[in-house]
Design a protein that fits this description.
alpha/beta, 7 helices, 196 residues
Length: 196
């Protein structure tokens, strides 16, 4: 009897709280499928890293034993088409050979996260609400990262930090950094506007 677990996230980038959830899930299941959302999105300040780069970040945080029990499924966004997104996610999970015939599937969701609403979409899966270990978000980590606030380094696992530091040396980072500061300057220029 195989007990499989499913985690859904964008991991842009994976922060400490998400990593703790991965470890929590691995402690409870035989196999873990990590669904990496926003697959094949163009690079933006909201999506700086490709699916492959994000998967590599998560893999770098896992021990060989944990990695052997973990599979990754990239998943495209289907805005305004929830049924397609659910179908693609279920098909992606079932396509994992070690999970295809699992007798139990548990979807791990954060108690306070919007992802907790996923439970209603997967009625055949068990739902385990995981405590929100810390009030962290990828948006906050990215904001600190692009504003050069070194505090972001404390919010991600060391292997993720190493890859983010290496990313800073790329032309892609410089282009995204320019985009971030252009948008930030534009917003600040409208701070004094008499309307929202």
């Amino acid at each position: 009897m195989t007990h499989a677990g499913v985690l859904i996230g964008r991991y842009q980038p994976m922060h400490r709280s998400q990593f703790r959830t991965v470890r929590h899930a691995l402690d409870r299941v035989d196999r873990l499928v990590i669904v990496v959302g926003s697959h094949d999105q163009a690079r933006t300040i909201k999506n700086p890293w490709t699916s492959a780069e994000r998967i590599e970040m998560v893999q770098a945080c896992l021990s060989p034993t944990e990695l052997d029990r973990t599979r990754f499924v990239p998943l495209r966004d289907h805005l305004y088409n929830e049924n397609r997104w659910v179908t693609d996610l279920q098909q992606g999970v079932r396509a994992v050979p070690e999970v295809a015939d699992a007798t139990r599937v548990t979807l791990f969701c954060s108690e306070n996260d919007a992802s907790a609403g996923y439970g209603r979409l997967f009625p055949r899966w068990e739902i385990e609400r995981v405590p929100e270990w810390e009030r962290l978000s990828g948006s906050h980590v990215r904001m600190l990262y692009f504003t050069r606030d070194a505090a972001w380094r404390e919010l991600v696992p060391c292997p993720v930090m190493d890859r983010m530091l290496a990313f800073e040396a790329t032309q892609t980072f410089r282009e995204l950094d320019d985009e971030y500061h252009h948008i930030d300057d534009y917003r600040r220029a409208w701070d004094g506007a008499p309307f929202p």
